[in-house]
Write a structure and sequence with these properties.
single chain, 61% helix, mainly alpha, rod-shaped, three-stranded antiparallel beta sheet, 6% strand
Length: 203
């Protein structure tokens, strides 16, 4: 797989999984006694917080180098596993939640498919974190790109300076055949065609 496409795929999956996890947490996960408990209510906001933190982590990796991406990748993997576990363990209201919302400790009800969607998204987020850890060294960093651009600009500036030096010396810079960057220069001739510094023939 091409490196650029590889990084784009991992980053895109991470962004989608994080954003979708936050949205899914706001959906109804459990129906009972005419009330629908959302994932945010059942998990006390944990699923939403974990998903948003993972989303932010994926965004931060775009600004980091190899080791930074690996460290953040570990954190993203942990956040994804946390989302998965919380979604499995908190998909049904506790007795305390039932009493607080409905005033009864127990009532029949049924769950929806949304907690399992959150489980899948948590697993995808964890996989994205692992991808950052394992493949971070294959992707270029912003600093490396800046260094390459700066090096190109320095070469252009050096070439322009050599051209001005040639003009100032009375030479034609178009006769240097691209050797300006290497410090090459052509000898300057005086009006009678003699190169300065060369001995003259004695008559």
């Amino acid at each position: 797989m091409i490196r650029g496409h590889d990084r784009a795929l991992v980053t895109t999956v991470g962004l989608i999984a994080g954003a979708a996890g936050a949205v899914v947490s706001g959906q109804v996960w459990y129906h009972t006694a005419g009330h629908g408990f959302t994932g945010t209510e059942l998990s006390d906001g944990a699923v939403e917080a974990l998903s948003l933190a993972a989303l932010a982590g994926v965004g931060v990796t775009l600004l980091l180098g190899v080791w930074g991406r690996r460290v953040v990748g570990v954190l993203i993997a942990v956040l994804g596993l946390g989302t998965l576990l919380v979604s499995v363990l908190r998909r049904i209201p506790t007795t305390t939640q039932l009493v607080q919302v409905l005033g009864v400790p127990d009532t029949p009800g049924g769950g929806t498919a949304w907690p399992w969607v959150a489980v899948v998204l948590g697993a995808a987020t964890a996989a994205v974190g692992v991808g950052f850890v394992l493949r971070a060294h294959r992707w270029s960093s912003p600093n490396a790109r800046f260094d390459r651009d700066a090096g190109g600009r320095q070469r252009v500036v050096a070439s322009n300076l050599d051209a001005w030096k040639a003009l100032d010396a009375g030479d034609d810079p178009t006769d240097l055949d691209g050797n300006l960057a290497h410090g090459a220069s052509t000898p300057r001739h005086d009006p009678i065609g003699r190169v300065p510094g060369t001995p003259t023939q004695q008559e």
